[in-house]
Design a protein that fits this description.
Blueprint lengths: L1 H17 L10 H20 L1 H5 L4 H6 L2 H8 L7 E10 L4 E10 L2 E12 L2 E6 L8
Antiparallel strand pairs: 1-2, 2-3, 3-4
Helix pairs in contact: 1-2
Length: 135
């Protein structure tokens, strides 16, 4: 229950953080959904390592990459301790999206390019730094 409440608070915060004030993206629910997925995935990765992140990956990624392969691919990548912001969210008509995710690490904030795809009503991650080594 605590995790669900936390996830709902995170999702609300992500909607606010993900929306820009220079366009009408705040009217697009997909922007908030992508922001929420990136935030939740970052915290899951911080808490449970690659296993936590794995739960947020798109089906084609998990079909090509086991949890063990993901852990190996992400070895050497900075481990987040938290999430700062998701910005520059671009939603495409083909059901894909890109965003800049700012993760907090022990060595400071890092901006990372992430990619997403829509699976049904949910958004899932297709790319984070290091994942290209997995497959």
């Amino acid at each position: 229950m605590r995790r669900l409440t936390f996830a709902l608070l995170i999702a609300t915060a992500a909607v606010v953080a993900a929306c820009g004030d220079d366009d009408d993206s705040e009217d697009d629910p997909a922007v908030g959904q992508v922001g929420a997925v990136s935030e939740n995935a970052t915290y899951a990765f911080a808490e449970d390592g690659p296993d936590g992140l794995y739960d947020y990956l798109a089906e084609p990624v998990t079909a090509a990459c086991t949890k063990e392969q993901l852990a190996s691919a992400l070895d050497g990548e900075p481990i987040p301790t938290g999430w700062r912001q998701t910005k520059d969210i671009e939603i495409s008509d083909d059901g894909t999206a890109t965003a800049t995710v700012i993760v907090i690490t022990e060595d400071g904030d890092i901006e990372q390019g992430w990619s997403f795809t829509q699976e049904g009503e949910s958004w899932r991650i297709t790319s984070v730094p290091g994942i290209e080594e997995c497959a």
